[in-house]
Every structure is written in C-alpha cells, then in structure tokens.
Amino acid sequence: MTQDELKQAVAQAAADYVAKHAPAGSIIGVGTGSTANFFIDALAPLKDRYKGAVASSEATRLRLEGHGIPVLDLNDVDDIPVYVDGADEIDAGLNMIKGGGGALTREKIVAAVAKTFVCIADGSKLVETMGKFPLPVEVIPMARAHVARELVKLGGRPQERAGFVTDNGNLILDVHGLAITDPKGLEAQINQITGVVTNGLFALRPANICLLGTPEGVRTLG
Ligand SMILES: O=C[C@H](O)[C@H](O)[C@H](O)COP(=O)(O)O
C-alpha cells in the first residue's frame, strides 16, 4: 500500500469513529495536513448529520467549505465531542509532535476544547522516542533571536522555517537534535520561554486514541 492509501484508510476509519461516537447535531473538530485532508473528504458524505465543524487552520476551513460543511468560530462553540487530526510523530503513550504544516497553535486550542482527540497517522509516524522530526515552535517575530538562544540552552538546534508565516502572523522555529525523553516536561519548559506562542509537543494533552495505518490494516492504539 502507498502512504496515501494508508492515510486514506485511517481517514475512513476516523469518519466511521465519528459516525459512531459524535451525536447527531454536534460539531466536529478538524485538524490540518495531508491526513486530515483525507478525513475531510471522508467526512463530507456525513455532513448533514452534523451542525458543522471547527477548523484548526485556514487551509482546513477552505477545504471544509469546499465540501459545503459549515465552519463555526470556536468562540461560539461549547462542546466538541471528537477532534480528528494527524501527527508528525506519535509514541506509545500517544504523545505527539505536530506542526509540520505550521498549524500547531490552533490545533492545540481546538484539541483543548475537544473531549476525544483521535490521531490518524500512517505507521511511519509511530516512534519509540520523539525528536527525529524537528520540533516546531511558534514564535512572536520580535522574540526570534531570544527564543532561539533559549532553545539552544535546552540542547536543540533551532532553524527558522524560511519564508513561512503562521495563520496567526508568527514564525516557526524548527528545533533539530532533541531526544525527547520527557515530553510533558519539555512541552511545559518551552512554553515558559517568553515570546513562544506554543510548541508542537502534544503531551500535556495527548491523543485519546490513535488509528494507525499499516499494510495489515488499521490498528487502534489507546
Ligand atoms: O501543522 C500541521 C499538523 O500538525 C499536521 O497534523 C501534521 O504536520 C501531520 O501532517 P500530515 O498528515 O500531512 O503528515
């Protein structure tokens, strides 16, 4: 199976999960990225069952609207039963690195509201120790040099993502060379650096389940 076929399989499994667990009339949280895009396509046939979706990025908003799925402002929503999103890396504890597409902050906000976070990923994303994928950190532009110096003190090699601006008007530092043995501790520590908006570790709010695409079928973790 190709990587896209694995992503499609987990996206369909997530749509089936939503159909089973999100009550009719509820609002679905939708992540960002290539795997989340397959999920949006799989969700489209179910759209009349739900009130709409909350999008974790402008790209996701456009794709949802392209399918005729109403997109709601998170400030008008109290309850998101299920949030579905991809990951760049995930470990056995369902901690994740996210933000390869730069949408980490809005993803973290939607995930904070959601009751259940369903991570969808092809098998290549499952790792023993996270950190091979450079950790994205969203930074207020005037704090770039200060935050980079602080990240070096933590043992990382930050690199500005060239020419990239987040949906929130900020920049991304991708931090190379971290072996993340304490994901919760590192997530909290990086978020303490003045000028950091948030970082791509999802360990303080990990996924609740992961639907993992393998050539043998979709495995459920968690
Ligand atoms: O900012 C992007 C998101 O965190 C994505 O969910 C993550 O990068 C995974 O993307 P993909 O499904 O394209 O591998």
Automatic annotation (TrEMBL):
Pathway: Carbohydrate degradation; pentose phosphate pathway; D-ribose 5-phosphate from D-ribulose 5-phosphate (non-oxidative stage): step 1/1. Keywords: Isomerase. Substrate binds at T32, G33, S34, T35, D85, G86, A87, D88, K98, G99, G100, G101, K125. GO terms for cellular component: cytosol. One of its GO terms (molecular function) is ribose-5-phosphate isomerase activity. It is an enzyme of class 5 (isomerase). Its EC number is 5.3.1.6. Gene3D superfamilies: 3.30.70.260, 3.40.50.1360. The active site is at E107 (proton acceptor). GO terms for biological process: D-ribose metabolic process; pentose-phosphate shunt, non-oxidative branch. It comes from the Bacteria. It catalyses: aldehydo-D-ribose 5-phosphate = D-ribulose 5-phosphate. Belongs to the ribose 5-phosphate isomerase family. Homodimer. Catalyzes the reversible conversion of ribose-5-phosphate to ribulose 5-phosphate. This is Ribose-5-phosphate isomerase A. It comes from Dechloromonas denitrificans.
